[in-house]
Design a protein that fits this description.
It is a single chain. With 248 residues, the protein is of the alpha/beta class. The chain has a single domain (2-247), classed as P-loop containing nucleotide triphosphate hydrolases (Rossmann fold, 3-Layer(aba) Sandwich). The protein is built from 9 helices and 10 strands. The strands form 2 sheets. The chain has a 6-stranded mixed β-sheet, sandwiched between helices. The protein has a 4-stranded antiparallel β-sheet with strand order 2-1-4-5, covered by helices on one side. The relative contact order is 0.17. It binds adenosine-5'-triphosphate (ATP) and magnesium ion. Adenosine-5'-triphosphate (ATP) binds at residues 11-12, 14, 16, 34, 36-42, 85. One of its GO terms (molecular function) is ATP binding. Residues 2-239 form the ABC transporter domain. Pfam families: ABC_tran.
């Protein structure tokens, strides 16, 4: 479904991705973990085409996106939903208008009332049904995150990319978002990649977890395999220990 082959990316003279390989199967939820600044968001940006790799290949649903034309990449983009790390709401649009954006852009055949009812349903899923008229500046951090999530899923995408979906949320709301991610997979069969620092969320939602380190996936496996990893880098990361190879 999603494949990155030997992807390299240097930014501002710093080697960020250094031969990254990822192979994500249809219908799975794959969680990427790794320290801050290691290139997790950059990896997602290469998948959605916001960034191009210096070398290597990105294949989405069997299509190589490296040299894709505008129309093709636009069509592919419609099948993907993205929750950006910051929420990335547009400040001058209210919550409903933000959530409706992908529909207004990509599904022009829908009537205004159809759009409204879809948006309302997605807002209910993230418990924002009463905040639709609010502007982004009037939302808490967690509400912004949930509005971003509603926008990511509004077009019933085949692929959803989540960048830190639970950061800044209280523990109960975090679990509600985890459950929502699981139900998107179970009910709609979506394929997801989720970047997170929240290991309890990772263990709960992931079919597989991959850890990125020095520009590559250094270990990959189920939650149990990662919990029992003997790799000292993985062990230090998941335990949060201040002593180990990550802090030398
Ligand atoms: N557009 C850009 N131009 C220059 N450098 C960039 C750009 N985007 C990211 N970087 C750099 O690439 C590195 C990886 O960034 P990235 O956002 O992928 O980190 P991350 O793993 O998502 O970290 P975090 O967990 O803090 O979100 C960082 O050093 C960052 O400064
Ligand atoms: Mg990031």
């Amino acid at each position: 479904m999603i494949e990155l082959k030997d992807v390299y990316k240097t930014l501002d003279g710093r080697k960020i991705l250094q031969g990254l390989n990822l192979h994500i199967r249809e219908g799975e939820t794959y969680v990427i973990i790794g320290r801050s600044g290691t290139g997790k968001s950059v990896t997602l940006k290469n998948i959605i085409g916001l960034m191009k790799p210096d070398s290597g290949e990105v294949n989405i649903m069997g299509q190589c996106i490296n040299n894709m034309g505008k129309e093709e990449s636009y069509a592919l983009r419609q099948k993907m939903g993205v929750l950006f790390q910051s929420g990335a709401l547009i400040n001058w649009l209210n919550v409903e208008e933000n959530v409706a954006l992908p529909l207004v852009e990509h599904q022009r055949h829908l009537s205004k009332s159809e759009v409204q009812s879809i948006v309302q349903h997605k807002l209910e899923l993230v418990e924002l049904e009463h905040a639709g008229k609010r502007m982004p500046s009037e939302l808490s951090g967690g509400m912004k995150k949930r509005a971003g999530l509603a926008r990511a899923i509004v077009g019933n995408p085949k692929i959803i990319l989540y960048d830190e979906p639970t950061s800044g949320l209280d523990p109960v709301m975090s679990n509600q978002i985890n459950d929502l991610i699981i139900s998107m997979q179970e009910k709609l069969g979506v394929t997801s990649i989720c970047v997170t620092h929240d290991m309890s969320s990772a263990y709960r939602i992931a079919n597989r977890i991959g850890m990125i380190y020095e520009g590559q996936i250094i270990e990959e496996g189920t939650a149990d395999q990662i919990k029992n990893s003997q790799n000292p880098i993985v062990k230090q990361f998941i335990s949060g220990s201040t002593v180990g190879p990550l802090t030398q």
